[in-house]
Amino acid sequence: MVMKLEKALGELMKKLGMNLRTATSQDEKSKIEKNIEKIDNQLVTMPKFQRFLLLSMSGSFTDIHVNFSGTSVFYHLIEIRKIFYVAPPTPENLELYKQFERHEFEDEWIGDVLFFQWV
């Protein structure tokens, strides 16, 4: 999907570039340039990886997090089991997570703050 999106955005950039060359008014050129800038930013910031491998030892754990670049993850467990605790992605919880990432929690752990929301 990443490759398809990158290709589609690249084709759109080419089309906008052609439209920019034929634009007649400054207002039209300005709008096209803004769209080109947005798409260029998307191309620069979108994830460039398609697969990754995560290995962990028995008894290990991962702290509360959002997967990098907002990616989805498929877990295949070869031995034993992995337990996931998930809290609803409400606007309030997402704001709490942002505060947690900015190290704004001094005496509390976010896991305790969200304790009664874990599923």
Structure, described:
This protein has 119 residues and is mainly α. Helices cover 47% and strands 0% of the residues. It has two domains: 44 residues; 50 residues, no CATH class. It contains four helices and no strands. α1 runs antiparallel to α2. Keywords: Iron, Metal-binding, Oxidoreductase, Transcription, Transcription regulation. This is JmjC domain-containing protein.
**Global Rg:** 21 Å
Principal-axes geometry comes out as elongated
**Helix content class:** 40-55%
N/C terminus separation:
30 Å
* Major beta sheet summary: none
Q: Could you tell me the number of beta strands?
A: 0
The residue ranges in which pLDDT falls below 50 over 5 or more consecutive positions are none
| Helical segment count | 4
Which percent band covers the strand fraction? under 5%
Q: What order do the helices and strands follow?
A: HHHH
Structural class by SSE content = mainly alpha
Number of separate domains? 2
InterPro entries: JHDM1_Histone_Demethylase (IPR050690), JmjC_dom (IPR003347)
Keywords: Iron, Metal-binding, Oxidoreductase, Transcription, Transcription regulation
Domain JmjC: 21-119
GO molecular function, one term: oxidoreductase activity
Essential attributes:
119 residues, mainly alpha, 2 domains, 4 helices, iron, metal ion binding, JmjC domain-containing protein, JmjC_dom, oxidoreductase activity
Brief characterization of the structure:
The protein is an all-alpha fold and 119 residues long. 47% of the residues lie in helices and 0% in strands. It has four helices and no strands.
